Amino acid sequence: MPDISMIREGVPMTFARQLRLTVALATPAMLAQLSSIAMQYIDASMVGHLGADASASIGLVSTSLWLFWGICSAVTTGFSVQVAHKVGAKDFAAARDVLRQGLVGALIFSIIISAIGIAISGPLPRWLGGTPGICRQSSLYFLVFVSALPLLTISYLAGGMLRCVGNIRVPSVLSIMMCVLDCLFNFLLIFPTRDIGVAGTVFTVPGAGLGVLGAALGTVLAETVTAAVMFWYLYCRQPELRLRGLHGSYRPRRIIMRKAATISAPMTLEHAVICGAQIAVTTIVAPLGVIAIAANSFAVTAESLCYMPGYGIGDAATTLVGQSYGAGRRDLVRRFAYITVGLGMAVMTLMGVAMWIVAPLIMEMMTPVKEISVLGVEILRIEAWAEPMFAAAIVTYGVFIGVGRTTLPAIMNFGSIWIVRLPLAWILSRTMGLKGVWIAMCVELIFRGSIFLVRLLRGRWIPLSDKKSIR
Length: 471
Description:
Layout: H1 5-8, H2 15-48, H3 52-88, H4 92-120, H5 124-127, H6 132-147, H7 149-164, H8 169-190, E1 192-198, E2 201-208, H9 212-236, H10 254-285, H11 290-326, H12 330-366, H13 370-383, H14 387-402, H15 407-432, H16 434-458
Antiparallel strand pairs: 1-2
Helix pairs in contact: 2-8, 2-11, 2-12, 3-4, 3-6, 3-7, 3-10, 3-11, 4-6, 4-7, 6-9, 7-9, 8-9, 10-15, 11-12, 11-13, 11-14, 12-13, 12-14, 13-16, 14-16, 15-16
């Protein structure tokens, strides 16, 4: 199996080698994303059995949580992309310097964002149009997650750094571990103490009975344990980036921070406006009632079965393209871009077909409420048509991140959602309800994938200022 060090060592690579290396990096990343999906499915299923109000209370603030998570994740990308370039150039000392700056910068930023989230946690559900019956649970759920943002941000940073040096296996294994821990903690925290019969024997299973709050605490506990292990591995074990026993300054340096800001700022702003649009969609869905809110929330979780593998391949694309660019091998930059995008579209097409077929089974697993299940199946089957082009947008964006080009892709994402999705969702929801909102989403994702493919194929995304030799 080809090793990623072949890129920075200048070893000639045939198409077959490039494809095998892509699959080798993408497979554990996809498995990690699938384990994350399994965790979301289990969470949704556990909470779904508490009733429609409990499901709606989580669905109401889920897009707001994505906003806070995504902003912190985008900030860490500015540092991990620099590491990919330094490792590609075999400058490991400089890569460690970037890591040190990233730890300080990401931690300070996440503490500020967490404080903002804590301050707005009380009134947020009311701002989103939630009914009095679900606002309190929504506030508690949101509060727990934003309070843990600094720890989660360190996890994002550590995982991003490991992936950018080509170590996708450790983050993937830890993602699976997080899924197992999440199931265990949720099982103990969501439900009250109860008796369960197994093979004629009755066992008493302890439980805290915290409901929605227990779901938040269980997930945060699982993510905290995972973050600690991942950071330990990065700090003590990863050869290219290990900091333990090595001296270096953690004082922020202008050149590293400026470059990180150049990469991260467009992504952060783009994520903010995209999540702002998703929050706006939530305000469109909220007046449609508790059933629509719950069905929308469950369908968003279920759809992740299709698109999260695409994000795994996008991670692999960022690593391969970033290291190829750092090594001055622009021929590989273009080839890895095409290979990863093609692979992503193929995988997500298959996942879309699978989603169309098993949508009823998935929704029945998530909720016992018939009205929610039926509506969820209908909107999932609408969205299945968009998966190939959604893959094009996801993986191509990962390619552009790999070369540090984030401004125009951020504008493309912003324009697609705010100009196409939101107006169309508002218009169609007035006559078609929640199905109209998801038709608008499907149309917008197809449009977004198309414009990303056009930019990829035109080839102008590779920085012209690169003066390194082409091998």
